[in-house]
Amino acid sequence: MSWWFKQDEIHKVTHVHVGPEFLPWHREIVNRLEEMLRSVNPKLSLHYWDWTQDPRAIPNANLGDGRRGTLNLFTSDFMGYGGPTQQEIGEPWLNAGFYVPSASPNRETSDNPADPPRLVTRAVGPASAPSHASEDQDEDIVSQANYFAMRTRLQAVHNAMHGFVAMGRQHISFRDPFVFLLHSNVDRLFALWQTQRGHPERLDPNYVYGPDSNDPGLNSNIEPWSTGHSFDSFGIEHFARPWYMPENMGMPRNYKHPSIVQPPMYDSNIPPDSFTSPPAAVSWGPDRLDIFALGSRSQMRHRAWHVNGEWFPKDDWEDLSGEFTSPPTVVSWGPERLDIFALGLGKDMYHKAWHVNGEWYPSLGTWEPLGGQFTTPPTAVSWGPDRLDIFALGTRNEMRHRAWHVNGEWFPKDDWEDLSGEFTSPPTVVSWGPERLDIFALGLGKDMYHKAWHVNGEWYPSLGTWEPLGGQFTTPPTAVSWGPDRLDIFALGTRNEMRHRAWHVNGEWFPKDDWEDLSGEFTSPPTVVSWGPERLDIFALGLGKDMYHKAWHVSGEWYPSLGTWEPLGA
Q1: Are 76 and 92 a contacting pair, CB within 8 Å?
Q2: Residue 489: what pLDDT?
Q3: Residue 373 has what pLDDT?
Q4: What is the CATH number of domain 3-261?
Q5: How is the chain split into domains, by residue range?
């Protein structure tokens, strides 16, 4: 007996056509046929017919070899006959033995599933059911709030589509291979309903069936694959091998088994919202954290840790809308204040702020456009209340700048300040006090450049020039300040060793004319932090992707030493 003929027997001996079991039972038979196809060729997948399209003329379809056009599924090399009157399905199924007109015995007379049927017929778009389903019907199915409402609508459209593609009578439709394209679409819509965002319960076996959950059928074995012993919807008893004796290959499971509840990976599934950018985190006070990252639709997502000891939102991430092409940059200049910056689809800058009044500005669902066009993500810093400075490279790789003033306005008002230069790395910016900014970036020769904003209200060396700091580097700079008039800059040199230079309170760079060699050989840019005056901690990944650490102590020495690093393992 062929495995294809077995599908008709399985359908007949169970005949699950009504009730809450209808969707998960047909999911199982669809999944199992795909498993059998993949036992022949692991690259095969069972496709579906999107019943909102006429299967005789699917527009803009993938025709193979990079071609697109109108596709007819009913041809002699795919699904066979597709006319409006009931006729035999023909090739390719006739020569493949899916039915044998001269068969004796045959399934129609012997009722033996091992015997081939004499005929398999279909009609597509007959006068009795001339129309395929609509997108509105699909949307109505997927928008239902619970399983009962969803399944009743889905089964109604399913029934209508069995009329549009009429595959003989209800009890013999599984003799027609097209039935699996129809039922794959039924399962696809079930899966799409399950994966709607904000409904994790639809993936939970204990809750997916909602008001139907206590139905005796859902809590009984799914047959014939559990034991092979079943009663069809007419009450007739059946015994199906190999799940029944003598093979006893059944594996008892009910309709709440995770393998049945878990939706297959259809291309229309809505994935759980994952992240597509690294996180950005900031704290505006004790026991407060705010984390931001881009979601799977490139929208901004946010979650906060509150002083009450809970995450908000409690079980998900807040959707701050937007569509971005850069990771977020976040800064806080005081309690209850957050400012987020990111590049939009046109590489222009957008901004959103959280105010002390407990609201997002401009609103939860909108962003303030700041214009410009940039080639690097933004870098933002604040040197005091009501002050923000944002930097990014423009289209000529020049440094661009815009500031928010205490007077409540952006400067420049309608554009971005051109700080000149031509750079190959994003800027790194640090502030060690009010009215002080220090910007670092790599030039065309991978050497370091610096510009500062002074308390006297001027750029140093000037608006149009930069201070060359020499060196040659393979990573963007990392800068930190542990107090007024103190800067420490780190980057990897040409041998991937750690390099360092510091600005002292005495008004000089150290080393004076070069960069201090902190040794090591690294595969990641450095991360540096300071928790107090005369304290620096540097971290980077070594050749084996293991972590290394070096610290500067108040004693005026490097730990473990200038030439060694503390291994922190992998």
Answers
A1: yes
A2: 98
A3: 95
A4: 1.10.1280
A5: 3-261, 274-371
